[in-house]
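User: New here, please read:
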Amino acid sequence: MIKYKHCYRKDRWRVIGFQWFFGNNGPSIRNNWTSALKLVGAKLSEIRTFVMSDDAKYRYEFETHIGSDIYNSHIKRSYKSCAFCSNLFRSTCHNHCFRCYVKINRHCDAILPGTFPFSGSISGAAEETSTPWLYRKPCQGFDRLRRKTYYANFKSRLSAVTTANYEVLEGIFTGLTRGKRPCHICASVDLEIFNRCSQSGYVESIPCDKIYREISSAYKTIRRPAKQQRHTAC
């Protein structure tokens, strides 16, 4: 008799636990494992989001939603950039620098504008003499990274650098970073861009559609005289 009471008590707690986890949907999905697994995944996602830091939440949001939208936009517009090429690889001379397998003797450069402060491995002056890979026109050897690895070149062993890269990418391609205009991106390339924009007046929460174009224009003009100056360490 004790055995049966024990079994009853254990089964009762299983039912209570089942109902607590699935809520009011518990009874209706008890025999539908597909729905049950979906709800389990949703619950685990909620728990993971709750315990993550703000930066970790942002990286998760970028990798699951924001980055996917940017990728779809690139495919739709047939957009190409060296930054999204599988032939790009991390250089050994600087933490933030990349080189190209196709043009193996080419100098190294940063992959994004305005990310030097996060590495601390090179002075800001060096950034003024180089054009990031994002703004390089791909060669005939361009091989677009697949959806799952599309942002592999922007990930770092330092989570803060990965977060910064994601924020710059979101700002350049969507006009907003975490819901606000990322004016610091333009300012990191050319302060005049920021000054012109701030004088014209803008709403901080409205996306800016000029970031990519303004920065691209800046690299084609103010950086042209320094074209031959490169990182000698590589």
Remarks:
- The first helix runs from residue 2 to 22.
- The two ends are 80 Å apart (CA to CA).
